[in-house]
Amino acid sequence: IYFLSKLPSNININEVLIVICISIFLTLLASIFPAWKASKISPAEALRYE
After folding, report:
1. Cα separation, 40 vs 37, whole angstroms
2. pLDDT of 21 above 80
3. Please, are residues 46 and 38 in contact by the beta-carbon 8 Å criterion?
4. C-alpha span between 26 and 24 (Å, rounded)
């Protein structure tokens, strides 16, 4: 049996915005770096090992 009828929470808009900005930055970093690396390879070289 729980003694709490509700769970108190406080959502701070600044923390939410920080989390959103960090997640967007990490997503861009994780997608741009492999794309940049792949753009340096010629298509014939990339298909050679397929």
Report:
1. 6
2. yes
3. yes
4. 6
